[in-house]
Amino acid sequence: MPENARPADQQPAPVCLGTWPTPVEPAPRLAAAAGLAADALWIKRDDLSGLGGGGNKVRKLQYTCAQALAVGATTLVTSGAPQSNHARLTAAAAARLGLRAVLVLGGERPALAQGNLALDHLAGARLAWLPGATPERLRDEVERQAQQVREDGGVPFVIPFGGSSSFSARGYADCGAELLDQLPGIDHVVVAFGSGATMAGLVASLGAGRVIGIDTGAVADPGVTLDELLDGMPDVAVRRADLRIDRGQVGAGYAALTPDAAAAMRLAARTEGIFLDPTYTARALAGLVACVADGRIGPRDRTVFVHTGGLPGLFGHPALPQLA
């Protein structure tokens, strides 16, 4: 039986890789600019989670790395886009735990390693490039790299794309529990939807009706992805009709900086001194603003924006000059 298919009561306890709980900060100027009451918006600062520049992937890696250690792994193998935050934090987690990391990145090797790529190299990861990668080709290359680790005498542990599995989603069930302690009476929690486990974990602990996932275009069908993750989480019962996924911020696609996302980046920076990344958190804030504008979020609803990190990716994004 694959390690990630173990029954829940046989899974290892998570390792600690971050600094918890992360803060929840009021954002009155951003709230007013977005159309909310000044005391109605807070930011959950998971960009301050500690390891490797911070971000939401740290909570997931606490669970997947526990699985890796339980089977005696020597090398973490995973995949992502060239500026993958998950890849960067996998490299950092491997370094923290005394493991090696192999990162399979879908795209052309750039002439200059910037943003997350520079940090991947600093952490000692080995990068394997796959131009023109499809999800199927990425999976095949990950398995080829894992087999190479075996042939070299190591023990690989494959972490799925984005670090998302039903087991790693427990990291965001933990986050939901933190939020309930920090800010009782939450009406809405708004978060970027990438590979899905962040939203799945929040739904598991907060309920489907309170969590709004803003699709970033990372997966073909976020509804199917979310269903599969929730199906694998024991003791989680939600009505699929209650799940809230907003697909209005994808624009020209995952890699593109949309006008609304660029506006959201400027808004957060100029009202609260908070910097967002162009792919995930900027789309999430743009989605929050749209939800207020159309009435899905009322002006006095107690709302939390989850800052999932990703700032290093800004410095490797081709649209960076547009923001200057």
- Beta-strand content: 5-15%
The H/E string reads: EHEHEHEHEHEHEHEHEHHEH
**CA radius of gyration:** 19 Å
* N-to-C CA distance: 51 Å
Largest beta-sheet details = 6 strands, mixed
Strand order of the largest sheet: 1-2-10-7-8-9
Shape: globular
Under the CATH scheme, the architecture of the largest domain is 3-Layer(aba) Sandwich
Count of distinct structural domains: 2
Residues in helices, as a percent range:
25-40%
Unreliable parts = none
Number of strands: 10
Map the helices and strands.
Elements: E1 24-26, H1 28-34, E2 41-45, H2 57-70, E3 75-80, H3 85-97, E4 100-106, H4 116-122, E5 126-130, H5 135-151, E6 156-158, H6 170-182, E7 188-193, H7 197-206, E8 211-215, H8 222-231, E9 244-246, H9 259-272, H10 281-293, E10 303-307, H11 311-314
Parallel strand pairs: 2-10, 3-4, 3-6, 4-5, 7-8, 7-10, 8-9
Antiparallel strand pairs: 1-2
Protein architecture, described:
38% of the residues lie in helices and 15% in strands. The chain has eleven helices and ten strands. The protein has a six-stranded mixed beta sheet, sandwiched between helices. A four-stranded parallel beta sheet has the order 5-4-3-6, with helices on both faces. Helix 6 (170-182) packs across helix 7 (197-206). It is globular, with a radius of gyration of 19 Å.
